[in-house]
Amino acid sequence: MAPNDSRSTHPNPPVELNVKQVVLGDLSFQTWYQSIYPEDLVKKDNELLYICRWCFRYSCDVDAYVKHTHTCEHRTTPLGTQVYDHGGYSVWEIDGEEHKLFAQNISLFAKLFVDHKSVFFDVASFLFYILTFTDPNDPENYHILGYFSKEKLSWDANNLACILIFPPYQHKQLGKLLMGVSYKLSGWERDTGLVGGPEKPLSEMGHKSYVRFWEERLARYFLTRLCEHNDSDESQSQRQKGKTSKGSRKKYPQERISVQKLGHATGMLTEDVITTLKSMGAAEPDTKPPQSKQTQSSTEAEEDSGQTVILRKSKVLDWAKTHKLTLGDPVREEGFLGDYALTSTPEESTIESPEEDE
Ligand SMILES: [Zn+2]
Predict the structure, then answer these.
(1) Model confidence over 61-71: pLDDT tens digits?
(2) 7, part of any domain
(3) What angle do CA 347, 353, 355 make, to 5 degrees?
(4) Choosing from 73, 93, 98, 199, which is the catalytic residue?
(5) How far from chain centre, in Å, is Cα 247?
C-alpha cells in the first residue's frame, strides 16, 4: 500500500532526540521520542538509523544495512502464525518468548514513536501481533504497517498493551483494524472469553483513538440492533400496551439499558462503555427507581445490579450521520483463521457497506 507523506508530524515534537531520523525499507521519516537503543550500538548523537523492514534489526552503517536486506531470512514471509487475512491485510501472532530478538527489535523501534510504555525487554511474557499488507500483484513483497502487543496472562483483563501504526501508514483507519482484532482475539463472544480493554493509563493520543473506536463499536451495535429488531420490538411493545400504531408515537424511543449488558454484548469493560456513552452524548444516567422485583425476571434483576442508563436512539443515529459511520465493521469475521475462526457470526458479516477512509 502507498504510505502517506513521510513528513508525518507529531503534535508535540520534542526538542532534542538522540535518533532523529529512521530509514525503514525505502521510507525515511522523523522520530518522535527518545530512543532506548543500546548506546554501545547506537551512538547518542546519531542522526540516522537504518532499520530492516522485515525483522527490525538496526544499524547505523548503511553498508551493513544494505547487505542485511539482501539476506534477511524474513524478507518473503512474516514470522509467526497468520490469524487474520482480508483484503491484503493480515495479522500475524508472534510469541515473544520464541522470537525474542524480533520482539525486542520491534519494541525498540516502536519506542521512537511511543512515549509512555516501558515494557521492552520482558518480551517473553507478551504476544506480538503484526499488521502486514501484501499487494496481490506482488505476493512476496509484504510490508509491516504496525503492531500491537498483549500480555499472555493479564490480571487486569487487558486485551492490548501497546499499539502502534508506523507514522507513514497512519490516518488510514489501520489502528481501528488492530483494535478490532484485539477485541476479537480476547474471545469475548465465547463462554470462556473475557470482556477486556487496553492497558491503562492510555496516552492522550491513545485515549482519543480508543474513544473514537469505542464510539463506532457501540454505534454499530445499536444500529445493527435497530435494523434487525425494530419491527419486532415495535409490534411487541404495541401488544404489551394494547395500543395500535399512532402517527404521534416516536419512531426511535429511548431505552433503559444496563451498562454491564452493553459491555457483554460488545466485549467492552463497563468503564469504557460509560466513557464512550458520555462522549457520544447518547445516554444519560437512569434516575428512575428500579421496577419492583415481582415484575422482573431474574435476568433483569441481575442486570439491574449494575448501572443503567437511558439510551436515546435518535442521538445515536445523529452521531452516526455526523461521523459518516458505515455499518460494516473494518474487521471482517470471515478474515479470521485457525482457532479464531470458530466464533464467526455470519449474520454480522453479511452487512455490506463500502469501507471508509479518513
Ligand atoms: Zn531483517
Answers:
(1) 999 999 999 99
(2) no
(3) 125
(4) 199
(5) 42
Number of other residues whose CB lies within 10 A of the CB of residue 52 = 20
51 and 183 together in one domain: yes
Q: Is 151 a catalytic residue?
A: no
Report yes or no: 199 and 158 within 8 Å, Cβ to Cβ: yes
Which residue is listed with cell 495479522? 91
In tens, the pLDDT along 261-272 reads 999 999 999 999
CB 238 within 8 A of CB 253: no
Q: 122 or 194, which is more confident? A: 122
The reported pLDDT for the residue numbered 342 is: 58
56: left (phi over 0), alpha (psi -120 to 50) or beta: left
Torsions phi, psi for 313 (to 5 deg): -65, -30
Q: Count each helix (H run) and each strand (E run) in the chain, helices first.
A: 9, 14
Domain that holds residue 80: 21-198
Q: How far is the CA of 74 from the centre of ligand 1 (A)?
A: 6
Instruction: Out of 19-23, 65-69, 153-157, 300-304, pick the least confident.
Output: 300-304
* Other C-beta atoms lying within 10 Å of the C-beta of residue 28: 13
Three cell numbers written together for 279: 462522549
Q: How far is the CA of 213 from the centre of ligand 1 (A)?
A: 33
Q: What's the number of domains the chain is made of?
A: 2
Cα 5 to ligand 1 centroid, rounded to whole Å:
24
Neighbours of ion ligand 1 (CB under 5 A): 52, 54-55, 57, 72
pTM > 0.90: yes or no: no
Separation of CA 102 and ligand 1 centre (Å) = 9
Give the dihedral of Cα atoms 81, 82, 83, 89; nearest 10 deg: 150
Whether residues 137 and 233 share a domain: the answer is: no
Cell numbers describing residue 43: 551512538
Distance 14 CA to ligand 1 centre (A): 29
